[in-house]
Specification:
Blueprint lengths: L1 H46 L2 E2 L7 E2 L13 E2 L12 E2 L2 H6 L3 E3 L8 E12 L5 E4 L4 E6 L7 E2 L4 E6 L1 H15 L5 H13 L4 H10 L5 E5 L4 E4 L8 E2 L4 E6 L3 E9 L11 E6 L6 E9 L9 E9 L10 E9 L10 E3 L4 E3 L2 E9 L4 E13 L3 E6 L7 E4 L1 H10 L27 H19 L3 H17 L5 H15 L4 H19 L10 E5 L2 H4 L2 E5 L18 E5 L1
Antiparallel strand pairs: 1-2, 1-3, 4-23, 5-25, 6-15, 6-19, 7-14, 8-10, 8-13, 9-12, 10-11, 12-14, 15-18, 16-17, 16-19, 17-18, 20-24, 21-22, 22-23, 23-24, 26-27, 26-28
Helix pairs in contact: 3-4, 7-8, 7-10, 8-9, 9-10
């Protein structure tokens, strides 16, 4: 029994000792591992640089707030380190989709070193031919199977049965029997058949056989590409009915879209050089032969057309092309200064900005620069300060650049506006809503906008209340965004009068504009519109279903005050 107790005591000592030794060893290993991990984390953190998009001179080792403006610091992308941190980088695809074009400032309002236009190739309508039926009949055979098929002159395209042609054949055979005695009657019979596009080959076949041919062959008098195929085998046709159209693609039209500010810079006979996506690096030349006398009221654009020679048939109709018109001048060239197209300047109340292109070896970006403007002409504005003659300025697609800058938290037109703070603090540009829910919200917002436009105070407050209640009922996963939209709507609905409602409507509009960047639920275009006189000359934006300006901030007082700044 004593021996047994002694053994138990020894076992307990060994067990306790093992536990203490194991704990010591594990603690040392864990501490060493923690120290190693902390060291690795410190090394990783030391490689990161956090900066402020508004104050790029601020550089910190980790996240936090900007000591100057209080904005959240963002991680600097090493790939963008050679570009100005304030610049917004855009990929070649983004530049193409946004239809971004650039130009250098001119020393006169009518002069531009280049003008870039986007367009596409079309069939040359002047060379389009129509193949129609010359007589009544039934199509027993039809040899054109699909549009785009190549057809040659003289090629048989169909075989028709026609009682009219049977009678003419009968006349021909009778006249042929008396040809020696009455050649005039025979020649008249031949001419009748030819007038109905019966070929000499078929007439010779009728005469050789001495029998009436039940099915007359229809041959194409044209060569080209088949389009607008309008009949099939078994159809009955009347004289004048269309078989199909034939297009000659050895000559095409290049149709380019120009905008209101380009009117004075394009003339008939100008040379336009264009590239096609299908052939990178290859350039074709053409001459402007038509400038549309009317404008698309929705887009504020007009069509410019050029003749394009295509002898090798490499270019195809519907190719997307980009053209460049050079060396444009006007009578205003005597007005010297530093001038840019009006489309290059974004007005934000009392401030004006332009986007200047910056680039390095690997990327292209745009940097917003405040400018002081001077004289204006119909299409140009003089820049007194802010840019140099060597700066390449964005002259179209400017709003798309600004929208991209806003999403990336870079300096933009939208965040240069100084105004009172909203009751809601939501980063709207990061919010993604359910399509169905946002569609409901957008439609109710547009109705509220119409009520403010019509100076309908009671209706506007009721619409805002309806928007608030409907938003509360919607199934929205992002609860912070839902609460924000409810509060913004409530601010409008609780306004004591329409003037106060319009003040709160600005913040609701800003939220929906930011949401539209990631949440466009409409099949129809939604227009971004801007009034520089709203919000005490600070300027304010709104969304509209139509391009025509109807100002919700002033109503009937200044209904037409504003401009279309973009399109979703």
């Amino acid at each position: 029994m004593k021996t047994s107790k002694k053994q138990v005591f020894i076992y307990i000592l060994v067990l306790v000792g093992g536990v203490l030794i194991g704990k010591f060893l594990w603690s040392g290993s864990a501490a060493e591992k923690a120290t190693h991990e902390h060291h690795e984390h410190s090394e990783m953190a030391s490689d990161e640089v956090w900066t402020c998009s508004m104050h790029p001179e601020i550089k910190e080792d980790g996240p936090g707030d900007c000591p100057i403006c209080g904005m959240d610091l963002t991680l600097m992308d090493e790939e963008d380190s050679s570009l100005d941190p304030k610049a917004i980088k855009m990929s070649p695809r983004a530049l193409a989709l946004a239809k971004v074009a650039t130009a250098f400032p001119s020393d006169s309002p009518g002069e531009s070193k280049s003008l870039t236009l986007d367009g596409k190739l079309l069939f040359n309508e002047e060379n389009k031919k129509k193949l129609t039926a010359d007589f009544h009949g039934r199509i027993d055979e039809f040899y054109m199977d699909y549009e785009g098929q190549q057809i040659n002159k003289g090629q048989i395209i169909a075989e028709l049965y026609s009682p009219e042609i049977e009678n003419l054949q009968r006349e021909l055979l009778i006249a042929h029997q008396d040809k020696e005695e009455n050649s005039r009657l025979f020649n008249a019979s031949v001419k009748k058949l030819k007038n109905w596009n019966i070929s000499q080959q078929d007439i010779d076949e009728i005469l050789a056989s001495g029998e009436i041919i039940n099915r007359i062959k229809i041959r194409s008098p044209f060569e080209g590409i088949v389009s607008n195929l309008s009949v099939r085998k078994g159809n009955h046709v009347e004289r004048g009915d269309l078989f199909f159209e034939v297009n000659d693609i050895s000559q095409l039209w290049g149709e380019f879209e120009a905008y209101e500010q380009h009117v004075s810079k394009i003339n008939l006979g100008d040379s336009i050089y264009f590239t096609a996506r299908a052939f990178p690096g290859k350039k074709w030349g053409a001459k402007v032969n038509f400038i549309s006398p009317t404008m698309n009221d929705q887009k504020r654009s007009f069509q410019v057309r050029a003749d394009v020679k295509n002898p090798d048939l490499k270019l195809k109709p519907s190719f997307i092309v980009r053209g460049e018109v050079k060396n444009q001048t006007s009578e205003a060239s005597a007005v010297k200064g530093l001038w840019v197209p009006q489309s290059a300047v974004l007005w934000t109340g009392k401030k004006s900005v332009v986007y200047v292109q910056v680039s390095d070896d690997d990327s292209v970006g745009f940097l917003m620069k405040p400018v002081e403007i001077g004289r204006k002409t119909k299409d140009f504005v003089e820049v007194l300060e802010g840019i140099e003659a060597s700066d390449e300025v964005a002259v179209s697609g400017v709003f798309s650049i600004d929208a991209a800058a806003q999403i990336a938290a870079k300096p933009s037109m939208m965040n240069t506006r100084e105004k009172k703070g909203s009751s809601v603090d939501v980063d709207w540009k990061e919010v993604k809503l359910e399509t169905e829910a946002f569609s409901v919200i957008l439609n109710l917002y547009l109705q509220l906008k119409e009520d403010l436009t019509d100076d309908e105070e009671e209706k506007a407050l009721t619409s805002a209340k309806k928007l608030q209640q409907k938003t509360e009922d919607l199934n929205i996963q992002d609860q912070e965004a839902k609460k924000g939209l409810v509060q913004l709507s409530k601010d409008v609905s609780k306004s004591k009068n329409i003037d106060v409602a319009r003040e709160h409507f600005q913040f609701l509009s800003d939220a929906l504009i930011a949401l539209m960047e990631k949440n466009n639920p409409s099949d129809q275009p939604i227009y971004l519109q801007y009034c520089p006189m709203a919000d005490n000359d600070q300027g304010a934006f709104w969304l509209s279903e139509e391009a025509v300006i109807k100002n919700p901030y002033f109503g009937s007082m200044m209904l037409k005050c504003g401009s279309v700044e973009g399109e979703f």
